[in-house]
Amino acid sequence: MNIKWAELHNPLFLGGTNLQLKLDPAKRTGLKMEYNRNDKELLVTWNNQTAIVPISNVASMVPGEVEAKPAPAPAPAHRIVAQVDHPTLHAHKGPGYGKTGK
């Protein structure tokens, strides 16, 4: 059975990384977890290494498939950048750039 989130009683060190107590494959790309009901073991795969975690070390787990993260929103087309050459100019270059007044 695939697991999409698990919490352990003790931190897990695997593949040269401290994965901590809360295992969330949605936040850590490449982390895969499967629960074996026959052997009552949680199999955690990270960085091409697999750890066998006994059920006595698992506080809780959520079965299911890992959901893909949504794509990040694109950056705005117009970006205001501070460009002050001397005190009589506007503080920001962009719409309204230049001297105030007419």
List the helices and strands and how they pair.
Elements: E1 3-8, E2 13-14, E3 17-18, E4 22-23, E5 32-36, E6 41-46, E7 49-54, E8 58-63, E9 81-82, E10 92-93
Antiparallel strand pairs: 1-4, 1-8, 2-3, 5-6, 6-7, 9-10
Order of secondary-structure elements: EEEEEEEEEE
Count of helix runs: 0
Q: Mind summarizing the main beta sheet?
A: 3 strands, antiparallel
Roughly what fraction of the amino acids lie in strands? 35-45%
Q: Report mean pLDDT, rounded to a whole number.
A: 82
Q: Share of helix among residues?
A: under 10%
The count of strands amounts to 10
Order of strands, widest sheet: 4-1-8
Principal-axis shape equals elongated
Low-confidence stretches: none
Class based on secondary structure composition and strand pairing: mainly beta
Rounded radius of gyration (Å): 25 Å
Distance between the termini: 71 Å
Walk me through what this model shows.
This protein has strands at 3-8, 13-14, 17-18, 22-23, 32-36, 41-46, 49-54, 58-63, 81-82, 92-93. It is mainly β and 102 residues long. The chain has a domain at 3-63. The chain has a 3-stranded antiparallel β-sheet, with no helix packed on it. Strands 5-6-7 form a 3-stranded antiparallel β-sheet, with no helix packed on it. The chain has a two-stranded antiparallel ribbon with strand order 2-3. A hairpin with a 4-residue loop joins strand 5 and strand 6 (41-46). The protein is elongated and about 75 Å long. The protein starts with a strand and ends in a 9-residue tail after the last strand. The mean pLDDT is 82.
